[in-house]
Amino acid sequence: MELPADHPPIVRPRVGVLLINLGTPDGPDPKSVKRYLAEFLSDRRVVEIPPIAWQPILRGIILNTRPKKSSEAYSQVWSDDGSPLAAITKAQALALKNAFGPEVLVDWAMRYGKPAIGDRLQAMKDAGCDRILLAPLYPQYCAATTATANDKAFAKLAAMRWQPAIRTLPPYHDDRAYIDALRASVEAALQALEFEPQALVASFHGMPRRTLSLGDPYHCHCQKTARLLEEALAPVLAGRPLITSFQSRFGPAEWLGPATDDTLSALPGKGVTRVAIIAPGFSADCVETLEELSIRGREEFEAAGGTDFAYIPCLNAGEEGISMLKALLQRELAGWACPA
Ligand SMILES: C=CC1=C(C)c2cc3[nH]c(cc4nc(cc5[nH]c(cc1n2)c(C)c5CCC(=O)O)C(CCC(=O)O)=C4C)c(C)c3C=C
Ligand SMILES: [Fe+2]
Ligand SMILES: [Fe+2]
């Protein structure tokens, strides 16, 4: 049958997976950082103060002070491939594309900055994706991360005449595959060390404390991940503690604690001068892990009398991390696609 001249193009239906992470500036310079922070910190899922009160503080104070400081942090971790968060998320998408083969289109996007979620969803739709799995890469659910990533995707769908069917990746904080991947990465890292840490610190990104009483499961998810990881590592830790802490405090309100910087500074005084630190809540290394933990955390620990410090990288696009993500995504794609 001949199609009418104004018939839209017909494309082969496909299944797509969109990996989503937080977002990052286009460059490490203060101007790019300011643009990124303006978008990020204007998100009402992130800062839950009414805009009429928050925007003057953000525009009048924060965006005139923080970009310079943050830009210095970004400059220390920026690589030839750009922002580590973007480069690693891209590498994860490529590795999963290779792992899944042609049956599944794998793409990646950022909640803030580029590549934008809306642009990538449109590109996937144009490429024929009529079923899309949104995969915010946060093991622990948090309204400020998981929910806002999904919100942004659904806002794009709201403007589409022919929407794809959508699934979202649930949090995987207690998934066996995730805990096993973390365990294997810690085991390998500890084996390669030239010193014996007396403790393992698990540092999660912090959140305002009130989000816990408001019903966000983030704190509980972090605690459960830490407990399961400690149990899985029991033979290796052999009685050495896994200490949970929360990093990246922002603003004057009370945040989840204990704070990672305070924890690292206090350990030498308690006789713990050799530590390893891991950031299980980050699926990719970024300014918060590479600068705040690996550089600044070490400085703080050593200034307090610590002698040996090791930062254990995130799962990133390594073999264990990719097999874990492949297993999680494959499960969520059940009935849609059965990729290799
Ligand atoms: C992993 C989970 C994350 C939660 C929860 C989270 C909450 C949260 N963050 C801020 C403020 C900032 N975060 C910044 C960077 C940043 N945050 C996460 C992840 C979570 N944030 C990542 C992966 C990154 C790194 C981005 C990168 O480009 O590498 C920043 C910017 C850096 C800086 O200026 O320190 C800010 C600011 C708030 C307010 C918040 C919850 C309320
Ligand atoms: Fe953050
Ligand atoms: Fe809890």
From TrEMBL:
It is an enzyme of class 4 (lyase). It comes from the Bacteria. It catalyses: Fe-coproporphyrin III + 2 H(+) = coproporphyrin III + Fe(2+); heme b + 2 H(+) = protoporphyrin IX + Fe(2+). It holds the Pfam family Ferrochelatase. Keywords: Cytoplasm, Heme biosynthesis, Iron, Lyase, Metal-binding, Porphyrin biosynthesis. Its EC number is 4.98.1.1. Pathway: Porphyrin-containing compound metabolism; protoheme biosynthesis; protoheme from protoporphyrin-IX: step 1/1. It is found in: Cytoplasm. Gene3D superfamilies: 3.40.50.1400. The keyword Methyltransferase does not apply. Its main location: cytoplasm. Fe(2+) binds at H205, E288. GO terms for molecular function: lyase activity. Belongs to the ferrochelatase family. Catalyzes the ferrous insertion into protoporphyrin IX. PANTHER family: FERROCHELATASE, FERROCHELATASE, MITOCHONDRIAL. This is Ferrochelatase.
